[in-house]
Design goal:
Elements: H1 2-5, H2 8-15, H3 19-64, H4 94-102, H5 112-120, H6 123-130, H7 134-167
Length: 172
């Protein structure tokens, strides 16, 4: 990188070579750097693809396994106020609420459906159900939103890679 950045005339003088040879040298070095960067990006994309495959396989295997103890999908937690006041009632399950309270990064422990439920929840009701202030509950919802967005991008990338790989013909 340093040799590429040095002015051609200075490098030619220092190496006792013509500027044409120095230009060829700098061009070659730039091509090597470009190739390395492309390889690095390719490795990162491949790692992302493999991670997405693992995630998808994990999701498919969980869906194929029968649950030993069926859990209630939606428990309504009453926070002690009037039953007509829906702002204080949450539709999150006790399991999700426990994860939100106990885990240091609960957004990483929840599945995508639970993340969506947390996002749909009113911040005041969520704060009340967790015994937190509204600001902390809002920060939790923001973290859940970011995690869900990240997961959706990974799925989109996976679909893009699959559609690209389906378009390629296999060699004999």
């Amino acid at each position: 990188k340093v040799l590429i950045d040095v002015p051609r005339s200075d490098l030619a003088e220092e190496l006792a070579q013509s500027e044409t040879k120095i230009q060829v040298l700098q061009d070659t070095l730039q091509q090597v750097l470009d190739r390395r960067e492309e390889e690095r990006q390719s490795r990162q994309l491949l790692e992302l693809y493999l991670e997405a495959l693992k995630t998808e396989d994990s999701i498919l295997s969980k869906a194929a396994e029968p649950e030993t103890a069926p859990r209630k999908e939606m428990d309504v937690v009453d926070t002690g106020t009037s039953s007509t006041d829906t702002s204080a009632t949450t539709v999150l399950s006790n399991q999700v609420l426990a994860a939100l309270k106990e885990k240091p990064a609960p957004e990483l422990c929840l599945d995508s459906q639970d993340l969506e439920r947390v996002l749909k929840e009113d911040a005041a009701a969520l704060a009340s159900a967790l015994g937190w202030d509204k600001q902390k509950a809002g920060a939790l919802q923001e973290a859940c939103d970011q995690e869900l967005s990240k997961r959706l991008k990974q799925v989109q990338t996976l679909h893009s890679l699959r559609s690209t790989s389906k378009g390629k013909k296999t060699l004999p």
